[in-house]
């Protein structure tokens, strides 16, 4: 338990996040209008948000490659980035259940909720309280189901919007990576927000990512955006572990009949076309939603073998690949 000074420090951190949640935090003026990369650039940087790569000449901000600053997190053996090109595909649900499956297989696991604009891990994991601080002012992650957890939802009120611009977002993500006492863990699962913006770029520039997983649904519109996420990881040299098709088909809870309500097989076809691994099909079942809302993710229960089979297969493959990498 942190001492009183640490408790006050934690409250100070919380006050900072709550204050920033009501403002963009950029301190900007007109010269900052339209910029989201945090580089401090002026007009010559217009239209760029990469953090920063600009021009054919390379990196004009001192000629430095931003990926040269990557440093591993002490004690963390593998980092898994879970991404999607668009929202509403069940990426956070997938991240939570993947983390639980890895823990069920005897691995030490952390789960970082990097979706600052819509943190859902506190609800899905059924825990929401203030973390403590160590004597060295590092945040102590909360724990549930044997998993170490960090989320902005632990630091600001549930109904407080994070109305932040790039520089503040980058600062918070960096703090969650570097200033959290993750300890010795085998896998850190990072639940990213949808898209390919500041949070994703900050992550890949700050720490080396060992595995990237893209979540999609079978719909064409989802697959188009999923391909963008795959392209982002390719552009920043992050190894893609594969793509998973969530909400692949519907299983009726009454007759167990299967219906392809969002089409079917699109993610598998896209994976084959793009030359990446297809990790499996996760069906729509009522308990996935119901149990997530209750804070008891489906992989904490012995139900739905179709769902369990997919997560166990992905977990086994990740563990094997991590052992081979070492």
Tell me about this structure.
- By secondary structure, the chain is of the alpha/beta class.
- It has a single domain, classed as P-loop containing nucleotide triphosphate hydrolases (Rossmann fold, 3-Layer(aba) Sandwich).
- Helices cover 34% and strands 16% of the residues.
- The protein contains 9 helices and 12 strands.
- The protein has helices at residues 4-20, 91-104, 121-125, 166-178, 198-206, 220-235, 266-274, 286-293, 305-325; strands at 76-83, 109-113, 132-133, 139-140, 142-144, 147-151, 185-191, 211-216, 240-245, 250-251, 258-259, 278-281.
- Strands 5-6-2-7-1-8-9-12 form an 8-stranded mixed β-sheet, with helices on both faces. The chain has a two-stranded antiparallel sheet with strand order 3-4.
- A hairpin with a 6-residue loop joins strand 10 (250-251) and strand 11.
- 43% of the residues are buried.
- The model is unreliable at 1-9 and 22-61 (pLDDT under 50).
Largest sheet data: 8 strands, mixed
Question: What is the N-to-C succession of helices and strands?
Answer: HEHEHEEEEHEHEHEEEHEHH
Question: What's the helical proportion of residues?
Answer: 25-40%
Molecular shape = globular
């Amino acid at each position: 338990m942190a001492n009183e000074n640490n408790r006050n420090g934690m409250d100070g951190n919380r006050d900072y996040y709550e204050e920033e949640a009501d403002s963009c935090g950029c301190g900007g003026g007109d010269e900052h209008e339209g910029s989201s990369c945090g580089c401090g650039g002026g007009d010559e940087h217009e239209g760029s948000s990469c953090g920063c790569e600009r021009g054919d000449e390379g990196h004009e901000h001192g000629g430095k490659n931003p990926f040269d600053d990557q440093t591993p997190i002490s004690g963390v053996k593998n980092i898994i980035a879970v991404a999607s090109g668009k929202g509403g595909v069940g990426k956070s649900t997938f991240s939570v259940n993947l983390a639980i499956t890895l823990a069920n297989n005897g691995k030490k696991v952390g789960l970082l909720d990097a979706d600052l604009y819509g943190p859902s891990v506190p609800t899905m994991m059924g825990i929401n309280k203030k973390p403590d601080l160590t004597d060295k002012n590092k945040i102590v992650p909360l724990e549930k189901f044997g998993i170490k957890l960090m989320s902005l939802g632990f630091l600001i009120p549930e109904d407080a919007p994070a109305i932040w611009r790039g520089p503040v977002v980058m600062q918070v993500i960096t703090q969650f990576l570097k200033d959290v006492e993750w300890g010795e863990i085998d896998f850190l699962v990072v639940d990213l927000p949808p898209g390919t913006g500041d949070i994703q770029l900050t992550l890949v520039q700050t720490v080396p990512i060992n595995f990237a997983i893209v979540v999609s649904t079978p719909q064409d519109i989802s697959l188009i955006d999923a391909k963008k996420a795959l392209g982002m990881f390719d552009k920043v040299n992050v190894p893609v572990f594969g793509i998973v098709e969530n909400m692949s088909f519907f299983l009726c809870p009454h007759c167990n009949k299967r219906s392809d309500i969002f089409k079917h097989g699109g993610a598998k076809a896209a994976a084959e076309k793009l030359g990446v691994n297809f990790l499996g099909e996760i069906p729509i079942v009522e308990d996935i939603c119901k149990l997530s809302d209750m804070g008891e993710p489906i992989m904490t229960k012995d139900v739905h073998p179709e769902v369990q089979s997919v997560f166990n297969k992905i977990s086994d493959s990740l563990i094997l690949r991590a052992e081979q990498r070492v």
